[in-house]
Design brief:
This protein is an alpha/beta fold and 434 residues long. The strands form 3 sheets. The chain has a 6-stranded mixed β-sheet with strand order 6-7-5-8-9-10, with helices on both faces. It has a 4-stranded parallel β-sheet with strand order 2-1-3-4, with helices on both faces. A hairpin with a 2-residue loop joins strand 6 and strand 7. The termini are far apart. Keywords: Coiled coil, Cytoplasm, GTP-binding, Magnesium, Metal-binding, Nucleotide-binding. InterPro entries: G_HFLX_dom, GTP-bd, GTP-bd_M, GTPase_HflX, GTPase_HflX_N, GTPase_HflX_N_sf, HflX_C, P-loop_NTPase.
Amino acid sequence: MTEGMTTQINRAVLVGLSARCLGEEENATEATMEELEDLLETAGGTCAGLVLQSREAPDPRTFVGEGKVQEIRELVEGSGADLVIFDNSLSPSQQRVLSEELKVAVLDRSALILDIFAQRARTREGRLQVELAQYQYLLPRLTGMWGHLVRQTASGGKSPIGTRGPGETQLETDRRHIRRKISKLKEELEEVRRVRGVQRERRIKNEVPVVAIVGYTNAGKSTLLNRLTGADIPANNRLFDTLDTTTRTLEISDTCTVLISDTVGFISKLPHHLVEAFKATLEELSYADLLLHVIDASNPLWRDQAEVVEKLIAQLGADQTPCIDVFNKSDRYTGELMPHGENIVFLSAKTGRGVDDLLRKIGDRLDTGAHRVVLHLPYDQGGLLEALYQEAKVEQVEYAETIQVTAVLTPVLLGRMRAYIVEGWTPPKEPWED
């Protein structure tokens, strides 16, 4: 697996290709190259040069063509770079040929993102997800590295000297080893999901609403979570700074408490196997009662970034979940007209301006109709107190002539406990009682 790039590189040349035959997601643009440079800095490297090429179609062997390879080689030698990173995806054979011709290591965007993920993951779950993604990335490349042997023997050709027999045996051994690792990691992640499922059922039983913060990487999600809950989450100006879901309790009002989670930032051209590997974390989105889609209002490309997030939310099956668009860094918004609507909030998580408006909107969406009430329970009904501890928010218990309980009850519990409520809630009248 890849090691932290901070110990391997100092300078990298960034390369991108735009071709008519490539889809929008596959092409490199000035914006994606700028983002690639940010990714490089996040990984601990610095940019030594940038090459953005346009051509009709990628070269099958070198991706960019022999002439451009020569230009990149000269740039590498002149700048003292020890790495070349492509914004586009490279095939295993292209990666190998380019490494040989450029005399330095060659990565593509997926490999760079994986390296950052490997550096950033902290919890056991996060590390499992990264390791799974790395093996899924490696498996087809392993096949590609040995592909020429398979083709030769399949067509009746004679294997080159030094590659007969054991070479292919080793390939099959490596394949089996990696597939076993992938299978084991998937089992471990399924166990993580099972535990999460138990926790989720407990939350649903307790009727605790769940809010998930989502958004493009570096939009300010962790800063917003810190502002809302006082949580001490590192909030740095680095891409992918949060890789593990962090959940905190947020008091919206006296009778409304929610669980709020920060999630990994989304990014354009996110490798498919990364989305799959991170579903154990991101599947929380489909169980959330409300999404806060944090958008960097100071970024001129915020519309494109928001579209990337919305597509991934749909891919994860959470497109029907209610959502509030939170335009963060609004003090640096440069557009002429601010978007507006019932489900839009402009704020600055850094200064706190506009946060009260967001809390009000969350409360409006998630107000469950709970009430703080006082109950008098007979001593022979002590089992009801146990039920309250399990299903309600019990704030105070006093033992007098009866068991006097102050608690926040959901509408379901209000109906069940109505006979014992003495303060804080009056049962609605039935139509015939008027």
